Amino acid sequence: MSAPAEPASELRQRLASAWRAVRQRVGGSLLCAVVGLSALFIGEHHGGPALLYALLLGLSFHFLSQDARLRPGIDFCSRSVLRVGVALLGARIGFAQVQALGWPTALLVVAGVVLTIAAGLLLARGLSCRRDEGLVSGCAVGICGASAALAVASVLPPTRENERFTLLTVVGVTVLSTLAMLLYPLLVQAAGFSPQQAGVFFGATIHDVAQVVAAGMLLTQAGDTAAADSATIVKLMRVMLLLPVVLVVATWVRHGEAPDAIALDEDASPRADVPLVPTFLLGFVVLMLLNTAGLLKPPVVDTASTLSRALLVVAIAAAAVKTSLEDLRELGWRPVALLLGETVGLAVFAGLAIGIGIAR
Fold it and tell me: pLDDT value at position 142?
């Protein structure tokens, strides 16, 4: 009669262990949530990118990152919450969006992403930066800004260098995306692009989704939403490429071919526990397929999109809390030159492709 007692005792132990883990993460998670929600509030009521506000507010709370009671929750938000946010991006994607603009535009998007990542790796070598810095920055500029930087960094070895550079990349692409939102509408008008061409250019070059939509809306006149619509669709085509790129990087890391770096835990291998297919990518695929099949209703898609944005803001706030301004200063000017070179290169490539009629 005593046999059932052991499973029951084991279950209680597991529940107690899970409860302790939850309690350890509550404090830090609440801190990051408050910082993230504050950034969203400021962005919605006073304008400007919520991601940048989350970064600035998070950096101001760096002194709390050394508190042992808060650190587990901060780490949880910077990695697990981030991955859920990236997975939810899949709810916005559908294959019908690719078909809407035709294969020449799809080819332009794919070529732009591949060339930008390749340029990032080459520039990193030329600037004496680490290869994973070129990889993270190239993916951020080429795909979808801060979301791509965080997603790619989450499958790289968890090193101090990676954490610092990823945060700097998030800062850089957010600032550059905001500048592009203001400058690119002037450039496309000077180049004589049609609203459709302008939208394709915005979607293929601007880093973050919000700034892509805003740039398209700046050219919206008399109810003609061609620029905004095409910009959004092209941008979502770029976001769709996040899945294969992160999968390739995860496979690269799993086989021990990732760039050398110093692990946070020097006694452990930073690549040993990397799964073949990260769970959050499976979630991304499932949601993308459900949306493609028409099984996700517009309210569900809107809710998933809103939740994804909120979780990514919380994750960025957590990454900022973990990073000091001194750490960022030590990175020097080379990462800035890396991001700027990738951004200019992508804009020149897309502009020339559209100008000669490859994509319309």
Answer: 92
d(CA 311, CA 18): 22
pTM of the model as a whole: 0.68
Token reading at 180: 């592009």
Residues with Cβ within 8 Å of residue 161, at least 6 apart in sequence = 130, 132, 133, 261, 262
- Written as one letter, the residue type at 184 is Y
**How far is Cα 247 from Cα 235, in angstroms, rounded to an integer?**
20
d(CA 285, CA 301): 14
**Tokens 């110093």, located at residue:** 262
CB 140 within 8 A of CB 169: yes
DSSP string, 216-267: HHHT-BTTB-HHHHHHHHHHHHHHHTHHHHHHHHHHHHHTT-SPP--BSSTT
Q: Please answer whether residues 57 and 35 qualify as being in contact, where contact means their C-beta atoms are separated by less than 8 angstroms.
A: yes
- Number of other residues whose CB lies within 10 A of the CB of residue 328: 17
Instruction: For residues 30 and 62, give the distance between their C-alpha atoms in angstroms, rounded to a whole number.
Output: 15
Q: Could you tell me the two tokens for 159?
A: 């090193």
Report pLDDT digits (tens) over 137-163.
999 999 988 788 888 888 887 777 778
Per DSSP, the three-state class of 48 is coil
Closest CA to 328 of 166, 126, 89: 166
